[in-house]
């Protein structure tokens, strides 16, 4: 199986791809090459992404127990995550540290209110949680027999009235619910989860609970102290009138024919395009419109435009990853 790219950091056929890879590939091949083939990644922390990571971790930690959490449990878990996060991010600037303290404080306010609202319907006879934050690696075969893998992590899978449902949690600052619902059948991540769950469980998922949590959009002003800012956020989030502003949970149904149609009409053509790129058949180029979007500069802008390598980190090589995994296996064996 042909591969025109170096495989020091990543090999398409052996390592496979993720939804993040597919989304980036559809945006820009050059960013895909730099991020996966060359292993570059931004060293800057994005508070919005970290807010989402906090929410996903906490929800998974609680749902996998199938027990309703009290506020003390929520706070205790958040303190644990926060402590670990700051230990692994020691080289923060003072500005970054202050900003992340605000993010953790806002996440606590939002998540306490989240479980206050949804404890009653998320546990007991209403839902039985089967999987949370589960890693999967799905074999994908081309018509000629060539094989690679598609990887990902489920937010959650639960049983409701003896039927399987997907949980997909999104943390957003701006939410267009109508567009989210209308474009669900074109969403790579969601449809891939449907497809994998069908292949894994041999059962068509009934649908998806789209669990939308709004990230507070309050700005820290010159008049604010740290306390006044957090108090302002708390007052807004805790206002009962704002429940539907911060938390939305549309349920959307899916049929087996829709899942199969998606694989045939969307996933298969995209995977074929990726293969042609990997094998050097389709051209490689920088997509100019992807360098600066409505969200600002892309993550790899300085690397592509100004060749500022020092601003970026590089992932561990495939060999380094193998050595780390071998050490972990030996450590487990010694414990046994």
Notes on the structure:
With 336 residues, this protein is of the alpha+beta class. The chain folds into 2 domains: 12-43 and 270-335, no CATH class; 47-217 and 228-254, Lambda Exonuclease, Chain A, CATH 3.90.320. It is built from 13 helices and 11 strands. It has helices at residues 12-15, 19-27, 29-37, 47-63, 71-88, 94-122, 177-182, 188-201, 226-237, 243-246, 256-278, 301-306, 318-335, and strands at residues 17-18, 40-42, 128-141, 147-160, 163-172, 207-214, 247-248, 251-253, 292-293, 296-297, 312-314. Strands 1, 3, 4, 5, 6, 7 and 8 form a 7-stranded mixed β-sheet that branches. A two-stranded antiparallel sheet has the order 2-11. It has a two-stranded antiparallel ribbon with strand order 9-10. Strand 9 (292-293) and strand 10 (296-297) form a beta hairpin. Helix 4 (47-63) packs parallel to helix 6 (94-122). It is globular. The mean pLDDT is 92.
Offer a concise description of the structure.
The protein is built from 13 helices and eleven strands.
Low-confidence stretches: none
* Structural domain count: 2
Q: How many beta-strand elements?
A: 11
Largest sheet geometry: 7 strands, mixed
Structural class: alpha+beta
CATH architecture grouping of the largest domain: Alpha-Beta Complex
Proportion in β-strands = 15-25%
The shape, in one word, is globular
Count helical runs. 13
How much is the radius of gyration in Å? 22 Å
Mean pLDDT: 92
């Amino acid at each position: 199986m042909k591969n025109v790219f170096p495989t020091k950091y990543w090999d398409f056929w052996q390592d496979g791809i993720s939804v993040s890879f597919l989304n980036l590939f559809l945006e820009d091949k050059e960013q895909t090459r730099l991020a996966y083939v060359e292993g570059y990644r931004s060293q800057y922390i994005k508070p919005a992404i970290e807010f989402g990571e906090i929410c996903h971790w906490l929800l998974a930690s609680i749902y996998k127990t199938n027990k309703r959490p009290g506020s003390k449990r929520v706070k205790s878990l958040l303190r644990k995550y926060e402590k670990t996060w700051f230990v692994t991010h020691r080289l923060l600037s003072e500005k970054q540290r202050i900003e992340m303290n605000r993010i953790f404080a806002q996440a606590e306010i939002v998540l306490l209110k989240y479980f206050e609202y949804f404890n009653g319907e998320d546990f007991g006879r209403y839902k039985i949680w089967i999987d949370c934050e589960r890693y999967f690696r799905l074999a994908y075969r081309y018509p000629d027999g060539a094989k690679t893998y598609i990887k990902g992590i489920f937010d959650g899978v639960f049983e409701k009235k003896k039927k399987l449902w997907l949980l997909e949690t999104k943390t957003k600052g701006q939410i267009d619910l109508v567009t989210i619902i209308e474009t669900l059948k074109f969403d790579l991540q969601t449809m891939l989860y449907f497809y994998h769950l069908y292949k894994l469980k041999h059962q068509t998922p009934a649908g998806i609970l789209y669990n939308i949590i709004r990230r507070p959009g309050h700005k820290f002003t010159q008049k604010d102290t740290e306390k006044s800012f957090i108090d302002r956020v708390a007052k807004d989030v805790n206002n009962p009138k704002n429940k539907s502003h911060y938390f939305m949970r549309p349920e959307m149904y899916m049929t087996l024919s829709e899942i199969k149609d998606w694989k045939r009409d969307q996933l298969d053509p995209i995977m074929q395009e990726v293969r042609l790129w990997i094998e050097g058949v389709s051209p490689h180029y920088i997509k100019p419109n992807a360098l600066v979007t409505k969200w600002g500069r892309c993550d790899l802008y300085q690397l592509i435009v100004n060749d500022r390598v020092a601003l970026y980190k590089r992932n561990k090589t495939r060999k380094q990853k193998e050595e780390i995994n071998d050490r972990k296996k030996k450590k487990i064996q010694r414990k046994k």
